[in-house]
Fold this sequence. Notes:
The chain is mostly helical. The protein contains six helices and six strands. Helix 1 packs antiparallel against helix 2, helix 2 runs antiparallel to helix 4 and helix 4 runs antiparallel to helix 5. The longest helix has 35 residues. The protein is elongated, with a radius of gyration of 23 Å.
Amino acid sequence: MKCKRFLSISILGVFLLIGFVYYTTVFIFIEDWVGLQSSAGSLNVIIFTFLVSLCFFSFFVCVLTDPGHVPASYVPDIEESGVPDEERRKNNVQSRHCDKCSTFKPPRAHHCRVCRRCVLRMDHHCIWINNCVGYWNYKAFFTLVLYATIGSIYSTVMIVACSLQKDWEFSERVSFKIFYVTSGVMMVALSLTLGTLLGWHIYLIIHNMTTIEVLGPNMLKWLCPTALSHLKDGLNFPTSRDRL
């Protein structure tokens, strides 16, 4: 059952982190800054709630979507005739045989020791979603990191804005000051971590795959983690030689 993937300490930690960030941002920082009953406060709550909802949606898609399994009937299609030895060696590298699964591995497929099977276009096994990031859920993972980064930066801005308008000189609540500083440091660190991860995957998309292959040809669907109609079987990928 795919729902069993949610029975994980790491996933529980993600839920607790998102819940903590949402609660403190909305009911402490926005409330303390402009008030939830004001138009500015309501607008910020709506925007932040929307970002958190997108994070949750992408997170659920990442966890529940099978990253891609190699069909048992898969056999690499290698043309023996008219192919130079050097080119043939390159093809053999791409069309490897997995000793653990006793099957051939398509290009970009790798064996995951945690999932105990080969995964199509495997990127890595992510403990935070208790699942592999592969061919069918890579887009959901990318949008998750994107929305989480935007949400973290948004929360950081709320903390800074709230801190700047407070009169700390006459404040007697030392514990509240510590809470503000701790929350600010945590959100800055989280924003930098997620931002770095987002930048890394943008770099990978640009250099290893076109945005059309990863996100789809329709720009309006780029940020939707379930818009996967552009994906094929994940067994073959175009190379520079195919375009000649």
